[in-house]
Amino acid sequence: MYRRFQVPNIWQEMDQLQREMNRLYDTTSRGRVFTAPGYPAINIWTNEDGQLISAEMPGVHPNQIDIDVTGDALSISGERIPDEVVKDARYHRRERSYGSFSRTIQLPFMVDTSKVEANFKNGVLMISLPRAEADKPKKITVKSK
Amino acid sequence: MAKQDQTMEVQKQEETPADEMERTRSRRSFIPRTDIYETESEIIVLADVPGANEKAVDITLEKNVLSITAYVEPAIPSGFEIAYAEYEEGDYQRSFRLSDEIDQDKIKAVVSDGVLRLRLPKFQEAKTKKIAVKTK
Questions:
Q1: Between chains, do B88 and A58 touch, taking CB under 8 Å as contact?
Q2: Into how many domains does chain B fold?
């Protein structure tokens, strides 16, 4: 009875090895890429004054992009409209998708909404989100008597 | 708010070099998502190459093999550090074998908003001729 429930020693060793390998990959691989939960995929750049968010949106016209910032939430929405195709066209490849999209990103700080800027160049959207002054950490000097 | 389109792809597919051709650029290379369709008079190729402008796209047609290469200069904002990434920047490369009927001198390529639009007109003579089947 006792023997049946005993985990063989080798599996403990294997589990240990797996954990170590996972940790190795997690910590050493630079620029680990996460799977985007929705369209568009974004990259976030940060410094102490705020963040930059970039998104690849090829084929979306800048007029078709809506950006909303409220407090600490950024939402990007829009629509990718297909080119007009002649009626009798025969498709050989059809890998690009179309339609409307919307994505909301929670930021780690309150945004100074009056200073938000967005640029769209070569199908890449870059949004600059400065941190609100009131939200920035205050340095407090310690006085001695 | 508009309904989220579930079919919108967000992940890029990395290119694997074909024919044991080695790359001399250290940057990563991706397969651009492409639409190709054919009409009576031309073949139209649409490829997503975000980050590439019209000067950074090379198109060659040699022995019926159409090669598209788009070079992307990585945009790293100065004074910022990457905090979170869902996509990687890199070049785009893809080749297609076309049928024999393209008029190479009349190929037109336009890059706008990160999309390459290629128009490959067919030779006028090569257009399909309809042959009437006669009955006795």
A1: no
A2: 1
